[in-house]
Fold this sequence. Notes:
Shape: elongated
Radius of gyration: 21 Å
Number of helices: 8
Strand order of the largest sheet: 2-1-3-4-5
Order of helices and strands: EHEHEHEHEHEEEEHEHHEE
Number of strands: 12
Amino acid sequence: MKEAPRILVVEDEKKLASALKRGLEANDYCVSVVHTGVEGFVQAYQQPFALLILDVMIPAPDGLEILRSFRHHDLKTPVLLLTAKDSVDDRVFGLDSGADDYLTKPFAFPELLARIRALLRRGDGSSDLPTKMRLADLEINVCDRSVVRRGKKLTLTLREYELLKYLFQYQGRIVSREMLARDVWKETGRHTPLDNVINVHMAHLRDKVDDRFDQKLVHTVRGVGFILREEN
């Protein structure tokens, strides 16, 4: 399974931004909204997004300035520009500035969805991981990266969150240390030197997820790896 696509909307018209968020979330996207170019720049570099929807006419720095800064700093995330300007020259200038697509206001929402699907296919940003995953009383939300057990929010580090999400992706199946080294730490090699590091992070994760609860969900399979499952 893959993660639900995360989209950042940079739009200063708050009613439109709110409508975009509701509509996109209704179509199973995870959506973050900001209203200025500076906020958009910060968010885009703090979190991974599958797509950026960027209004050209946001207050200075405007959308094109932000877009050029993205590309100058080698941010390769696909960008869909929204603008009230509909001349050929405006569209060409936007695309030459680094945009991947261009949609003129007002637009039909189904067309926006079609443009998004096309960009995600092109950039391989599409995914099929559900927005929320649950096992017993433990729930993970991939949109806001929150983890809740028995109604209480757990505070995880980014690495602990990535480990738990990976275990959820393989829920009920054994995850080896080699798999974690390759897919979470992005290291290769069957005999990884990360074994001790992985064990330490997994112990910290288990402390937060399991220690205060009677039912244990994160289990070690001795000599093999780990598994997320309910005890029989």
